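Supplementary Methods S3. Complex input for the adenosine-3'-5'-diphosphate-bound model.
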Amino acid sequence: MALQAGLESLDPLSIERSKTVELEGVHFPIELVENWGLVWDFKAQPDDLLICTYPKAGTTWTQEIVDMLQHGGDPKKCARAPIYQRIPLIELFLPKPLPSGLEVAEAMPSPRTLKSHLQIQLLPPSFWEQNCKIIYVARNAKDNAVSYFHFHRMNKLMPEPGNWDQYLENFLNGKIAWGSWFDHVRGWWEAKDRHPILYLFYEDMKEDPAGEIQKIAQFLEIDIQEAVLNQIVQHTKFENMKANPMANYSTMPPSLLDHAVSPFMRKGTVGDWKEHFTVAQSEQMDDVCARELEGSGLFFRTEL
Ligand code: A3P
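Predicted complex, serialized as structure tokens:
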């Protein structure tokens, strides 16, 4: 079944919030764990490009930038389908009969651009065997946690987040879907010099979008003229992506993603965490970050 047609005919009664279970010590939605063998056996191809992130670190933004770069900065070509179809999340299992992310990926012509939120040790081995290029984007833990909290609220397939205090406790303990933010950002950071991995930061993208887009272009060996670069900067500005139905997830049924609860394109800023964290919570997060990232050389900015 085609993804978009399936989404449009989805029975709202078939939608239930998931729960997480552990797979090799990492929490995931149960549907993913039940199908883990299929994900692990995924056959990457040498010309696959993977965009990998902890959920809510700026994946969609990076996807749209990459798609624009791959299509000469032509917004019409990037409007061919919603972003989740142009660049599928390989480990996504939606209610049946909707196709899985694997099925969408397998039906794509090469060269494919794919998306994953897996921690590095759980990435299907074929990506390493094929030496695929990977773009990793990390976002500071405080803003990432806030964004993920609101995403849990609006995405009716995600586990119930509870209130902010309960949710933050689970975030700090890695007891949320896709596991510990700390293990995620650190694992990918430590691997970045051993593989073709471009490691980017959401905060840098906010501060200097043109510079970071150029880094991506260089990594992908795409030459871009200044006019195209400017076009991509404009097209991928938060306000423009928020208004773009092919990028803002408004093509998903509201029974699945309820933008009235919290829009997918919510704030798109650095520092919104200040509206959510108490002083004690902020200090606790600083302590956990310092402990978990110690010795890694990994540093995050929480304001610009
Ligand atoms: P907020 O919830 O803080 O607003 P992902 O794509 O990984 O799910 O991440 C979603 C987060 O990235 C949301 O953060 C969303 O608003 C933000 N985002 C999406 N597009 C963006 C853009 N063009 N510029 C800045 N932030 C963007």
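The longest helix spans residues 279-293. Strands lie at 20-23, 26-29, 49-53, 113-116, 133-138, 197-201.
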